[in-house]
């Protein structure tokens, strides 16, 4: 049985409504992932800063008098 124009339009409107909701849901997911990515990037920057601070402290404690000369 062939659908008349009104039924076809109704079916298309229903599909459009589902598609719009899906796009909204995907947008919410992308937005949340963007926030998580920003948070992770901030944590990485803090870890890099702490690592640099640690490396600087370790290098400062090294005493050159305790090291063997290159010819040993």
Topology:
Layout: H1 5-61
Describe this structure in words.
The model has no long low-confidence stretch (mean pLDDT 88). The chain has one helix and no strands. It has 72 residues and is mainly alpha-helical.
Number of helices: 1
Helix fraction? Answer: over 70%
Order of helices and strands: H
Largest sheet: none
Report the span from N to C terminus.
96 Å
* Gross geometry: rod-shaped
**Strands, count:** 0
Class inferred from helices and paired strands: mainly alpha
Spans where pLDDT lies below 50 across 5 or more residues? none
CA-based gyration radius: 31 Å
Beta-strand content estimate: under 5%
Overall average pLDDT: 88
Question: What does this entry show, briefly?
Answer:
The protein is mainly α. 79% of the residues lie in helices and 0% in strands.
List keywords for this structure.
0% strand, mainly alpha
